[in-house]
């Protein structure tokens, strides 16, 4: 395969096709509509299921139905649409069926705007709907990683029979970069042994999230929590850059993680020993590694396109061991390298590390 | 698989459970018509020989546990979303028979978008719509289908249409969608009506099997508990009053559906 110039939204949509997507249900919303448009053509060409739903509410419930029938299925949207899907997310979680939802985050709250944002972090990692559950949340930082993570998203969804979110942002969806798509994979022909396919030759199957008996519902919840614990133990992913000798640690994900890579390089040129940890899974969060690094560095700077959402997870994990500073931009504004760098320099001064050491 | 009654050898079992029903006793109140409609659906599924290919979608409402009573694959939808969920199932399983079973709160209030859009797409699903003019499961609140002046727990002085809007006539609405092939309103308030409803349900399933479009059978039903009536009076009341706001009849039947031998 060769590299080609791909727009983020088209890239993940095409990657999904090649990773064996069997059905897509969605509703247009900026800044992810190119994904829906691409799939409208490609899924029909491939003889697979594509349907533009009447709303995100309907789209996620169509996803829910198709997931119950045992096919590889996904939807994609942005913040306002994601809010509407919360109902379906909860039912999907309670029913333990696999599904993937991409959120190309935009500025909020409300209608907000259509610029990049990371302000759905709490929503995606902590409270994607009513009840006790966590989807797995993947956070790609470039188009290649977005492509690669589509395959991972389906694999994890099906391995654990769980909901997987792709946490992108408007910039990742809209920008074009050189990237390589995977080869076309064969479609799954079998339906899993829990799916509703008609009871011919076997006992009837029921997929529900309703357990009127509290002991049964607690049992379901204990099973879900047990599964989440297994996911936490096995599926934490992150990337580290120059943390070996770092005095200061940057923590950022997605596009901001990528910006922070430049911040780190600039700081290093000034003689500041700065490292970067970029979570690739927001849930499960790389808690153990951050706690470990917090024991070695002198200060931490968290950068996000939000008011400080991932920040709370970092604070929870670091437990006050070292000073944590925050650089956040909101309203759809991406932070620039120099503004984060200025905060790094400030933090260096506060904790007494610097180029003269 | 039905109850195997202990009957003497010289006697013949002439009436039992349809194969498509489980032998479980329902949780429905005495006199509730859900049981009748469940049985009619099951009889039709038996007759058409489609039990093994059928997937049901249960609603939120009194029939939320319908999957306990039907012996076939079933899913449980969120409130009003059964047509969207059925769409998802049917699109990826075009060889299966998919039906939704929905009440009037589910279909005519919270789920209006999903049912109208599914009908308009000509989604190859069958909807059985139970209209008893009230929210049963939550304790008798006003439904979109509650009759003018009707007293409910959330319209204690009787439904004032100027404040609360007018009864929603779903069959009439669905009938104007291009994708609908068969839309009919029936009742189960007496024996001839029950037989007629059975035929309508059969035609609705056959519409799907023949790929002719969306089909919906609205069934005027009773809720003796929340109507504060005995079952007999509830049947009379449904015939007498509900049919004035919700006239019985077939609102759409394409020529192809008409040609089906139901």
Short description:
Chain A has 357 residues and is of the alpha/beta class. Chain A is built from twelve helices and 15 strands.
Describe this structure in words.
The complex is a heterodimer of chains A (357) and B (262). Chain A has 357 residues and is α/β, with parallel strands linked by helices. Helix content of chain A is 42%, strand content 19%. Chain A is built from 12 helices and 15 strands. Chain A has helices at residues 8-18, 33-45, 56-68, 79-95, 121-125, 143-160, 170-174, 214-234, 254-269, 287-294, 310-318, 337-351, and strands at 4-7, 23-26, 49-52, 73-77, 99-105, 136-138, 163-169, 176-179, 206-207, 238-241, 248-251, 274-279, 281-283, 299-304, 324-328. In chain A, the strands form 3 sheets. In chain A, strands 3-2-4-5-7-6-13 form a 7-stranded mixed beta sheet, with helices on both faces. Chain A has a 5-stranded mixed beta sheet with strand order 10-12-11-14-15, with helices on both faces. In chain A, helix 6 links the parallel strand 6 and strand 7. The model of chain B has no long low-confidence stretch (mean pLDDT 96). In chain B, the strands form 2 sheets. Chain B has a 7-stranded mixed beta sheet with strand order 2-1-3-4-8-7-9, with helices on both faces. At the A-B interface, helix 3, helix 4 and strand 9 of A face strand 1, strand 2, helix 2 and helix 4 of B.
């Amino acid at each position: 395969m060769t590299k080609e110039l791909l727009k983020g939204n088209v890239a993940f949509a095409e990657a999904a096709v090649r990773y064996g997507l069997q059905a897509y249900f969605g509703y247009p919303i900026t800044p992810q509509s190119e994904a829906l448009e691409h799939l409208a053509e490609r899924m029909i060409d491939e003889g697979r299921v594509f349907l533009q739903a009447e709303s995100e509410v309907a789209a996620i419930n169509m996803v829910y139905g198709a997931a119950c029938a045992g096919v590889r299925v996904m939807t994609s949207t942005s913040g306002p649409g994601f809010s509407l899907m919360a109902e379906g997310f909860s039912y999907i979680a309670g029913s333990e069926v696999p599904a993937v939802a991409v959120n190309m985050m935009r500025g909020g709250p409300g209608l907000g705007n259509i610029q990049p944002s990371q302000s759905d972090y709490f929503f995606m990692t902590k409270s994607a709907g009513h009840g006790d559950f966590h989807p797995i949340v993947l956070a790609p930082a470039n188009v290649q990683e977005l492509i690669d993570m589509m395959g991972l998203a389906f694999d994890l969804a099906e391995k654990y029979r769980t909901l997987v979110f792709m946490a992108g942002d408007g910039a990742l969806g809209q920008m074009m970069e050189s990237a390589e798509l995977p080869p076309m994979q064969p479609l799954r022909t079998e339906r899993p042994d829990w799916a509703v396919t008609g009871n011919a030759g076997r006992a009837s199957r029921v997929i529900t999230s309703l357990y009127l008996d509290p002991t049964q519902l607690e049992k379901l919840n204990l099973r879900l929590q047990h599964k989440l614990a297994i996911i936490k133990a096995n599926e934490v992913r992150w990337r580290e850059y120059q943390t070996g000798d770092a005095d200061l640690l940057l923590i950022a994900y997605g596009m901001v993680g990528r910006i922070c890579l430049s911040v780190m390089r600039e700081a290093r040129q000034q003689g500041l020993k700065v490292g970067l940890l970029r979570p690739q899974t927001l849930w499960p969060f790389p808690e153990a590694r951050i706690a470990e690094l917090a024991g070695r560095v002198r200060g931490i700077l968290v950068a996000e396109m939000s008011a400080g959402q991932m920040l709370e997870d970092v604070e929870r994990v670091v437990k006050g061991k070292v000073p944590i500073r925050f650089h956040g931009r909101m309203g759809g504004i991406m932070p620039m390298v120099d503004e984060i760098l200025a905060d790094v320099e400030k933090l260096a001064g506060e904790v007494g590390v610097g180029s003269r050491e | 698989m039905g109850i195997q009654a202990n009957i003497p050898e010289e006697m013949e079992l002439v009436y039992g459970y349809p194969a498509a029903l489980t032998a479980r006793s329902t949780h429905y109140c005495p006199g509730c018509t859900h049981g009748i409609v469940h049985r009619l659906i099951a009889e039709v599924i038996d007759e058409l020989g489609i039990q093994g290919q059928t997937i049901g979608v249960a609603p939120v409402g009194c029939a939320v546990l319908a999957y306990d009573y039907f012996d076939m694959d079933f899913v449980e939808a969120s409130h009003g979303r059964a047509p969207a969920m059925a769409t998802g199932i049917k699109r990826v399983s075009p060889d299966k028979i998919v039906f939704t079973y929905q009440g009037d709160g589910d279909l005519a209030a919270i789920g209006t978008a999903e049912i109208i859009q599914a009908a308009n797409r000509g989604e190859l699903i069958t909807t059985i719509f139970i209209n008893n003019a009230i929210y049963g499961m939550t304790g008798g609140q006003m439904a979109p289908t509650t009759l003018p002046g009707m007293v409910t727990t959330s319209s204690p002085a009787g439904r004032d249409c100027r404040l609360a809007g007018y009864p929603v006539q779903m069959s009439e609405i669905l009938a104007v969608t291009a994708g609908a092939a068969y839309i009919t309103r029936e009742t189960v308030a007496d024996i001839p009506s029950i037989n007629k409803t059975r035929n309508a349900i059969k035609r609705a399933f056959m519409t799907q099997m023949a790929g002719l479009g969306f089909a919906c059978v609205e069934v005027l039903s009773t809720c003796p508990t929340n109507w504060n009536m005995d079952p007999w009076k509830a049947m009379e009341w449904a015939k007498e009053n509900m049919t004035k706001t919700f006239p019985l009849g077939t609102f759409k039947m394409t020529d192809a559906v008409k040609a089906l031998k139901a």
